[in-house]
Amino acid sequence: MKGTLSALFIAAAILLLSGCDTALTVGSKTIGIRSGSFLYEDGYLRATYHAPFETVYAACEKTLAGLKATDIERIRKISHGNFTAMLMDEKIRINIDYLEKGMTAVSVMAGTAGNKIAAQLLHDRIAENLKTP
């Protein structure tokens, strides 16, 4: 287990330094790096935003409302929040995590196994909503 974990961290470091679209499967985990700014892990596309948790949470909510998502379930705690919704017959899951002051991580999964293109579209909309008040 320790050797696998070490190999996973070394591989992730190499992928981060490469700065291109790369994927790696270790055991049951699939990790990919896209241009150094997105991390793809087990169907979730994760990005870090330089914005407060409350602002990012509101941008995610605005994104789902703007795309006319249905059956939206919201959970919000002090440092974590998530949304589950249906969008064009696909289940969408958005997890928001406080990292530090002014930095928030967002992980998006579209569909049952993860659709990178749909998740990227949602991240693009979230970023747009962060730019507009």
Essential attributes:
single chain; 133 residues; alpha+beta; TATA-Binding Protein; 2 domains; 3 helices; 8 strands; 35% helix
Please tally the helical runs, counting DSSP H or I stretches of 4 or more residues.
Answer: 3
Query: In CATH terms, what is the architecture of the largest domain?
Result: 2-Layer Sandwich
Approximate helicity band: 25-40%
Question: What gross morphology would you assign?
Answer: globular
CATH class of the largest domain: Alpha Beta
CATH topology of the largest domain: TATA-Binding Protein
The share of residues in extended strands comes to 35-45%
* Residue runs with pLDDT of under 50 for 5 or more positions: 13-26
Largest sheet: 8 strands, antiparallel
In N-to-C order, the SSE pattern is HEEEEHEEEEH
Order of strands across the biggest sheet?
1-2-3-4-8-7-6-5
Output the radius of gyration: 15 Å
Give the helix/strand class. alpha+beta
